[in-house]
Amino acid sequence: LSNRLQGALRTLRGEARLTEKNIGEALREVRIALLEADVALSTTKTLIETIRTRALGQEVMATLNPSQAVVKIVHDTLVETMGAACDRLNLATRPPAVVLLAGLQGSGKTTSAGKLARLLRERERKKVALVSVDVYRPAAMDQLERLADEVGVVFYKGSPTESPEVIARRAVDLARREAMDVLIVDTAGRLHIDETMMNEVRALHAVTAPIETLFVVDSMTGQDAVHTAKAFDEALPLTGVILTKTDGDARGGAALSLRAVIGKPIKFLGTGEKTDGLEPFHPERLASRILGMGDVLTLIEEAERKVDRQSAERLAEKFKKGKGFDLEDFREQMLQMERMGGMAGVLDKLPGMNDLPAAARAQLQNHDTRRLVAIINSMTPQERRFPDTIRGSRKRRIAQGSGTGVPEVNRLLKQFAQAQRMMKQMGKGGLKRMLAGMKG
Ligand code: GDP
Ligand code: MG
Q1: Which atom of ligand 1 lies nearest, measured to the CA of 111?
Q2: Has UniProt tagged this entry with the keyword Coiled coil (predicted)?
Q3: Is 110 labelled a binding residue?
């Protein structure tokens, strides 16, 4: 997919101006890319026309070649369609701020309730309570209770013999009395849309008066996600969307269609089964993913602004001389990446990232830069240059020195080996071009 798109864009090279003719082929490929990423047909059509209008006749900026200019227009259009800003939860109300989660069974409501509780407690220091009104499956209540326990928030227990509204009303009262900042209400879903479910969730909305009513939807359901979203949007005044299971194979086209069709912001992405798998939504990252190509352009722009040129040049020099990539370079790279908005942000933009297995990508993205840097700081210069010499007793010493553990040291060494392989692969093509871009 990305190869095809890149191929089409390559044909644009050398043209000074974008014309109907020379962008036609590129747009055909963009269209296929969008459809393959599960973007709805009607949304795709609208997008292509917007992109065509914007691209036509545009003078190509001196610093960009025409293919880059098209990538930039496509990318910017996708980002704008998905909502340019990262929309946060609105909790500005007299506490408790009620967050109501609605969606089909299996979409990830209960899991997201736990994740959201954790995020609000840990990052925003909120006092959070959870309540489940799923009276149809006692296991669903137990599932949420376990999650509440795991993430360290309060759980209000209801009984399957009570009505959902009774449980919800009591939870709101309790949350008020106990001075909770946020109450998250996890509702029951059905496998398909039906009137009973819609009536119930409407009644719950009336009883709890939520400030946020979030539609939870599985990104893997592709086109169906849009139909379901429409039905829920008609039944409830939705304030936003949580798009779950984006760690799977789905390319994320659902996000684009959702935003275009119901016009509500996507607020979070579910990125895993565990309680830390919830991320604020970043349209740029998803746009890159939908296009299936690294956003080299943005990377270069950011790099120009933030990266310390000298160290970039040193690194480039080192590659030219054919010297190996060692832990010293790895540390330098991590610090640069942190300045540029973290590993995840940078890795998403590198070409080829979409081709890495999901597991490898997740591993690369899930580490805490500062801890890794601390580990490398605890090594001797010799060890940094020759990581192979780091064995048992050295590992223990390094772990102790950095306040970590041997498994973490092992993990770092594994990540370094991966990065080294990646650098080797990119050494000839991508990285050098990238660094050349920084210097220019
Ligand atoms: P509910 O019926 O809407 O409450 O859905 P659940 O929260 O019980 O989730 C259904 C299944 O999806 C469970 O197996 C979850 O572990 C899984 N799940 C939910 N969110 C995610 C996610 O973001 N990533 C992955 N990989 N699995 C998820
Ligand atoms: Mg559930």
Answers
A1: 7
A2: no
A3: yes
Q: How many residues does the chain have?
A: 440
Asked if 179 contacts 65 with a C-beta cutoff of 8 angstroms, the reply is: no
Level-2 CATH architecture, domain 294-439:
Orthogonal Bundle (1.10)
Centre of ligand 2 from the C-alpha of residue 136, in Å: 10
Strand (E) or helix (H) holding 261: helix 253-262
SS3 of the chain: helix, strand, coil, percent, to 5: 60, 10, 30
CA angle (57 as vertex; 51, 60 as ends), nearest 5: 90
Q: Kindly give, in sequence order, each residue whose CB lies less than 8 Å from that of residue 369, ignoring residues fewer than 6 positions away.
A: 334, 335, 337, 338, 342, 343
| Residue 46 counted as an annotated binding residue | no
Thinking of the domain 2-82, which architecture would CATH place it in?
Up-down Bundle (1.20)
C-beta of 213 in contact with ligand 1 (< 6 A): no
Instruction: Confirm or deny that 342 is annotated as ligand binding.
Output: no
108 lines ligand 1 (CB under 6 A): yes
Q: pTM for the full model?
A: 0.66
Fold of 97-282: Rossmann fold (3.40.50)
Domain ranges of the chain: 2-82, 97-282, 294-439
Tokens of 21: 């003719």
CA–centroid distance, 423 to ligand 1, in Å, is 35
**H helix intervals, 125-238:** 138-151, 164-177, 195-208, 223-235
Q: Ligand 2 centroid vs 164 CA: distance in angstroms?
A: 13
CB of residue 253 inside a 6 A radius of ligand 1:
no
pLDDT tens series, the chain, 440 aa: 455 555 655 555 555 566 777 678 778 878 888 888 888 888 899 999 988 888 876 655 544 555 666 777 888 888 888 875 667 899 989 999 999 999 999 999 999 999 999 999 999 999 999 999 999 988 999 999 999 999 999 999 999 999 999 999 999 999 999 999 999 999 998 888 888 889 999 999 999 999 999 999 998 887 788 889 999 999 999 999 999 998 876 667 888 888 888 889 899 999 999 999 998 888 877 787 777 655 444 443 444 444 445 555 666 666 555 457 788 888 887 777 666 655 555 555 555 555 555 555 555 555 577 788 889 999 998 899 889 899 989 999 999 998 899 999 999 999 888 877 776 665 555 444 544 544 43
Question: 106 CA to middle of ligand 2, Å?
Answer: 7
- Was 252 annotated as part of a binding site? no
